Structure formats: structure tokens, C-alpha cells
Fold this sequence. Notes:
The structure holds 2 protein chains of 2 kinds. Chain A has helices at residues 13-22, 34-44, 63-76, 82-85, 87-92, 99-108, 118-133, 142-156, 160-166, 181-188, 194-200, 202-234, 263-322, 327-354, 359-362. Chain A is mainly alpha-helical. In chain A, helix 8 packs parallel to helix 10. Chain A is elongated. Chain B is mainly α. Chain B is 70% helix and 0% strand. Chain B has helices at 2-26, 32-38, 55-63, 69-78, 83-94, 98-115. Chain B is elongated and about 65 Å long. Classes of the chains: A mainly alpha, B mainly alpha.
Amino acid sequence: MAEFLEDPSVLTKDKLKNELTAHNVPLPSGEHKKEVYVQLYLKNLTILNNKKIPPVDTFSSDEELSTPVVSNRSRSGRKATKKTDKPRTEEVEVTELTDEDLKQQLAKHGVDTGPIVASTRKVYEKKLQKLLDEPAAEPGAPTDVTTLPKADSNQNGNTNSDNYSDKEDEEIPAPELEPVPVVEKPTRSRGKAPVTVRTSSRRQTKVVEEVVLEETPKKASKSVVEDILANEISTPTGISATCRRPIRGAAGRPLKPSEYWLDESRVQRTVHTESRTYAEMYSQPSSAVCSSKAPARRGFLSLLLKLLLLVLVCGSLYYAYQNLSSDQVDALKGLLDNVVIPVQSAVETAANYLGFSSSGSSAIVAPDN
Amino acid sequence: MPMMTLQFDLLRGGLCKLSRWISDTAMSSTSQKHKEFVAEPMGEKPVMALAGIGEVLGKKLEEHGFDKAYVVLGQFLVLKKDEELFRDWLKDTCGANAKQQRDCYGCLKEWCDAFL
């Protein structure tokens, strides 16, 4: 691959023309200023120095160059090199990116990367792959999916829940549940792919995974009961017959819940689910924390007590130090002596009993001052 | 005033013991290995001195060239002390489970906080 000049103005006009024709760049007819040829050179040839052709909306420094390149390509009919042909492929193939490009791609997703060296490359590739896969997964859908099939399976005995849990991105988005997508992903795929769980919401589910997997069966049973109850309560006519809920988006029904009489129940259900998921989201970290630190919790209370005691002792010491020269100290000393003397006598007797010499303890016998 | 100084000495000794006891209670969720590692500069300690890294994992790390604890520290620093990345790397390199990853990361992080 020939290296093209960054600053073609160092070449003469003729040389520029020759270079351009050599690379099948159509020249404007007639004589033009050198600047024209310089620009042509820059647009068509220098751009090929770069490893890839960036998309037009990003990489602002290359913005002007990319559009003419595209048009030139189509005009000249030159066989495009693979860099300009499929920019999307380059984005998707993380393993083929250079270190620099990997770094740029990660920066695009807001990831502050360190140096990409041999030992760190693989980790960053995986991270980028995960980031590229995530937006395609439609994270807003899962909880709705879990509630709908559960209720349906209870009423109709079908086993659609398994099918729904496989499909990540085909379900109806629930706008009010968007804040809780990542946590709900493991809930969704509970029975099926633990691998998916791990790769999708790694940070939270690494520790919380077991907790979530434990909780989801409970959640499933609870939510079904609650769904039925909610349905019973909200029915205006008081009829508690649980008929099949109309499928959203089917038979021309709008995706958003509108004026159906079951709408209330659905909204309530979603509200229930929402509150439950929020509670779950908050309880999960705390439960994870609890489960991993339950033994330390007991120690924490006693730690608090000890700290309090320490503060008290320090405070009293400081107070005593401040009042070192006052008469209060003498009074205190008197008090202390009253306390200490019996203690020391006990120590002395113990020492005598044990056969130690009491000469040391005689120094701490009753004070004379 | 010999009495007073003696009392102060007793108090001071008592306070020292109390503070050590408090710190021990606070760190009771970390293992002995962790405490030992974090207590001093790692020097030439082997990779198995890291918390969470036992014989099996240590051997695997050594096969990949990470034969001393400071080499793993190097990797940790190159990943900018990021928890997720380091844990991923650890899992990929030696197959550590979640607890082992957590212990190792915590150990290195605390060491860095103390000595770096």
C-alpha cells in the first residue's frame, strides 16, 4: 500500500496530475489552479492512508473527506478497497480492529480505556463486543414478557414463557419499565441460558446471580397470584372470571394499553411489577450485601459500641489534659486513688500468692501527695 | 506525679488494644491471607500469596507468565484498577470463580490504597 502524502502541495502541479491519473482519479478538464489538484489529491489519495473510512456523522476531522470519497468512488468506478466498502463490518469485527481503533470505539461508548497491550486486548475486545450487542437487545421489554406469559400460562396452560424468555429483542417495549432493564435480564432468562445472563449484565449479576435465580421462582409464583388478585379487584362489574387478556399488537390492537376494560388491571399489574422490580433492584444489592456480609453485621454493632467507648475515653483524657493544672485534677486523683488502691492491693495479693516479688508493686502503693 | 503517668500509661495501653480490636472486627470479612498480603509491600511474593489465588489458579497464572504477585499487580494497574475488567481478565486467564475474583481484586485494591 503506497504511502500518500499528507501535504501534497509539496509536489508540482504536473506531479499531482500524474499521481491522480495514476490512481484513476478523474481530473477536471482544462487547466486549473494547483490548489484544485491538491484538494483532489487530498480527498482521494491521502484518505487512503487512513485505515478506515469513518462514518459521516462521527470523526469530525474526516467529515469533509469522507463524502467526496464516496461520490468519487461511484463516479470513477474504481474497485473500492475493503476499508471503504464495508465500514459496518469493521465496527462489528472487534478482533480485526487495531489497538487505536479499539480504543476509539470504546471511547465512543464512554469507556475510559487504559493502554491496549497484548495482555489487555482480549478484555477490551470482549467489552466492546458486549457494548455492541447490548443496544440490539431491546432491554425495555423483559418484565412485560415475564408477566404476560406467566399469567397466560396460568390461565390457558400454554408454555409460552419458555419461548418468550429466548427472544431478547422482539417483545413489546414497556416505557415505564425502562429504568430496570439490566436487572431484569437475568430474571427473564432464568430457566434457560445462564451464559446469556453472565455476558449481558455482568457486573450486577456476578454476585447477584444466585440471589436472582433464587428469587425469580418466588417472584413468579407471587406475581401470578397478585396478577389474579389485581384482576379481580379492578373489574368494575365485580366478575372475577379471568378471561384471556387480549394480546397487544395483534389484530390491529395498539401496542400501548388504551381504553380496554382490562386496561386498569394491566396498568395496575405493571405498576405492581414496577414497584416490585424497583424493590427488587434495591433489595438485590442490599440482599447481596447482606448475604455476603451477614456475619460482619453482628460485628458492626459491637464495633459501633466500641467506637463510642473509645470516643468517650479519648474525650475524658482530653478533658483531663486540659485541666492538668487545676484543682479538679487533684480531686480526680483522689477519686482515682480511691478506686485504684483496692485494685492494686488485689493485684499485690495476687502477686504475693503467686510468689512474685512485691517490690515493684510497692512503688504503686498509696500516694503521699 | 508518678501516679498520674502510670494511669495514663495504662489508659494508653488499653486504648491501643481497643483500637486494634476494633480494626480487627472491621476487617473480619477479609481472610487471613488478605490481611497478610495487605500488611506489607509485596516484594517478591509468589502469585499464590494473593488472596483468592490458590495452588491451582496460581499454577495457571504462572503458565501465562504471571509468576510473581507484582506481575499480576502490573496487569491490575494496566487495566487502570477497573474491577470489571480485572475480574474478566482473571476469569479468562485462570478460570477464577466469582469469589476468587472478588478476593483477588479486593486484595490488590487495598494493597494499592496502602502502598501505591
